[in-house]
């Protein structure tokens, strides 16, 4: 398009200049009148006019490019809003038709095509609009669409070729050092050890989450409208359920992690599943309690509860927002499921080779050297590349492959688990698009509920509270996963995250800010990999006194790094 446009502009300018020459040559009167003008001056005038036309054409192209960049984000928001409104309209029309069918033959047709018998006076499934909460719709993941483009798929193939290079280099080094080909995965077997204990702990947490929150809500809903002391009943039920949640989903996973001395990957599985069950059970109760409070049962009618099958489906669905029904695909593509799980396995081996080839040799050798600021800085910049690769692998393996695999097996149609975070020019947009699943939960149950409780008076406090909760949860996961408290993740979220959210905000639209975002991501991942690896080996090798000195020096370096980053961002915002 751009090449054709340039050719068209150059051709137009040339034709205009040619017409001017022909007009002057073929017009005798003009020649007689302008006899004083030399042919050289005419040629210079024509060339100048043609050059002006070309310059004007280039200026128009630059203006067009700037206009397209500015309206691209607005057009994307408008399309998302139009899709949401169309789904809402379709759902309202469908419910209107369902109500008409219910009036005639007492049947209710759900979105997945099943028919259930209901009473004429019983409410049908609720229609969720954007005002009520998240609206689910049939849409694919962005990478699935992008991988259909040959150019994007080639980039994916390049990452696969890097994995092959890691394998070949590992085999070559082992053959040179040991005289034989060795391809052992001892690190993976260690990290995922004691999986039988992990399975038993998961089964216990799942059984509790499946039974207790559902039947506790059903029992409370049955007694609420009949009880003369509704407030006392609600507070008592809330306290009992909170105590059970704290005991089974709070204390039990921590006890299993420390009592059985689980390795890191097994610890992360239990802790992440603990948080997932807590978030899902909270969403289930949070979405259904207002419905029970508003729905006053008539004499002879029972309270309206969600079906047990819908709750069971929600526990496995790749979302943290409860709905009685979701948009569903007509069939399961088992080949897609198999390929997706194979990609997850490939990502595990990819991460293994990154750690074995790029991280462990460096930090294991550094642990035997005297600690210095120079060693820390060199290790930090050495860790930026493996840190960024691990971040991309975690994103692709979990947010794309793992969630899409379960969505396909459950015929879950809404695959918007992330957005195009890689195009972000602000950290505010990056936080919204990196992990849409968790962001939706924090937005609807954290940010919006905080605004509702404060009557929309403290928006900044609501945003800060979400950041603090996210920072605490991330630090909790890393502390229990690695087995030591080292608040790198908390500092990155609570300090850098808040600063970047307000400094690199949505007003930054220039591509320069996308470069700044990626640069900050590289540095942040390098800081995390460097400090956590050094702390891991410090727990093993460092004596207590040397250990405390090292922690103090690292804290000073982190503070200095934070100061220089903030000064750089302020300078860039002033210049741009």
TrEMBL record:
Q: Which organism is it from?
A: Oncorhynchus mykiss (Rainbow trout)
Which UniProt keywords are present, listed alphabetically?
Answer: Acyltransferase, Endoplasmic reticulum, Membrane, Transferase, Transmembrane, Transmembrane helix
Query: Does Nuclease appear among the keywords?
Result: no
Record bears the keyword Membrane? yes
Q: Name one GO biological process term.
A: cholesterol efflux
TM region positions: 155-176, 196-220, 232-258, 305-322, 334-355, 375-403, 458-478, 484-504, 516-537, 549-572
The Gene Ontology terms for molecular function here are: cholesterol binding; cholesterol O-acyltransferase activity; fatty-acyl-CoA binding
Which Pfam families does its entry note? Answer: MBOAT (PF03062)
Q: How does it sit in the membrane?
A: Multi-pass membrane protein
Q: Can you tell me which family this protein belongs to?
A: Belongs to the membrane-bound acyltransferase family. Sterol o-acyltransferase subfamily.
Can you say what this protein is called?
O-acyltransferase
> What are the subcellular locations of this protein?
Endoplasmic reticulum membrane
GO CC, alphabetical: endoplasmic reticulum membrane
Q: Which residues does UniProt mark as catalytic?
A: 474
């Amino acid at each position: 398009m751009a090449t054709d446009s340039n050719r068209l502009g150059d051709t137009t300018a040339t034709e205009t200049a040619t017409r001017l020459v022909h007009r002057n040559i073929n017009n005798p009167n003009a020649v007689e009148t302008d006899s004083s003008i030399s042919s050289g001056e005419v040629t210079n005038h024509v060339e100048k006019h043609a050059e002006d036309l070309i310059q004007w054409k280039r200026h128009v192209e630059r203006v067009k490019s700037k206009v397209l960049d500015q309206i691209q984000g607005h057009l994307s928001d408008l399309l998302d809003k139009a899709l949401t409104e169309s789904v809402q309209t379709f759902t309202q029309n469908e419910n209107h038709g369902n109500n008409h069918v219910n009036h005639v033959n007492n049947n209710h047709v759900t979105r997945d095509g099943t028919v259930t018998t209901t009473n004429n006076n019983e409410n049908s499934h609720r229609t969720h609009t954007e005002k009520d909460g998240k609206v689910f719709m049939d849409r694919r993941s962005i990478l699935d669409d992008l991988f259909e483009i040959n150019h994007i798929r080639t980039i994916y193939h390049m990452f696969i070729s890097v994995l092959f290079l890691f394998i070949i280099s590992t085999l070559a080094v082992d053959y040179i050092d040991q005289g034989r080909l060795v391809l052992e995965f001892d690190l993976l077997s260690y990290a995922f050890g004691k999986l039988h204990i992990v399975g038993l702990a998961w089964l216990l947490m799942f059984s509790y989450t499946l039974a207790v929150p559902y039947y506790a809500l059903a029992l409370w809903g049955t007694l609420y409208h009949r009880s003369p002391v509704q407030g006392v009943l609600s507070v008592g039920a809330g306290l009992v359920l909170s105590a059970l949640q704290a005991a089974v989903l709070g204390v039990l996973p921590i006890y299993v992690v420390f009592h059985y001395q689980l390795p890191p990957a097994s610890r992360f599985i239990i802790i992440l599943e603990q948080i997932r069950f807590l978030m899902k059970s909270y969403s289930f109760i949070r979405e259904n309690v207002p419905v029970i409070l508003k729905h006053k049962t008539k004499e002879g009618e029972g309270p309206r509860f969600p079906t047990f099958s819908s709750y069971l489906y929600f526990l496995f669905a790749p979302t943290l927002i409860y709905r009685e029904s979701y948009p569903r695909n007509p069939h399961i593509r088992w080949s897609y499921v198999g390929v997706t799980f194979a990609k997850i396995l490939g990502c595990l081996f990819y991460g293994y080779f990154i750690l074995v080839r790029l991280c462990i040799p460096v930090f294991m050798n550094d642990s035997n050297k005297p600690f210095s600021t120079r060693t820390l800085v060199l290790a930090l910049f050495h860790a930026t590349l493996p840190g960024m690769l691990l971040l991309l692998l975690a994103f692709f393996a979990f947010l794309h492959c793992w969630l899409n695999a379960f969505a396909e097996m459950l015929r879950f149609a809404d695959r918007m688990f992330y957005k195009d975070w890689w195009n972000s020019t602000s950290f505010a947009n990056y936080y919204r698009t990196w992990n849409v699943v968790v962001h939706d939960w924090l937005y609807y149950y954290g940010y919006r509920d905080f605004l509702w409780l404060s009557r929309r008076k403290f928006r900044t406090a609501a945003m800060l509270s979400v950041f603090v909760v996210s920072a605490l949860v991330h630090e909790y996961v890393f502390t229990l996963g690695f087995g030591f408290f080292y608040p790198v993740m908390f500092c990155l979220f609570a300090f850098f995250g808040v600063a970047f959210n307000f400094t690199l905000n949505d007003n930054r639209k220039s591509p320069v800010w996308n470069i700044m975002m990626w640069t900050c991501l590289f540095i942040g991942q390098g800081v995390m990999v460097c400090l956590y690896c050094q702390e891991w080996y410090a727990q093993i090798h460092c004596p207590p006194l040397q250990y405390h000195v090292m922690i103090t020096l690292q804290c000073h370096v982190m503070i200095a790094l934070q100061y220089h980053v903030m000064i750089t961002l302020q300078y860039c915002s002033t210049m741009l």
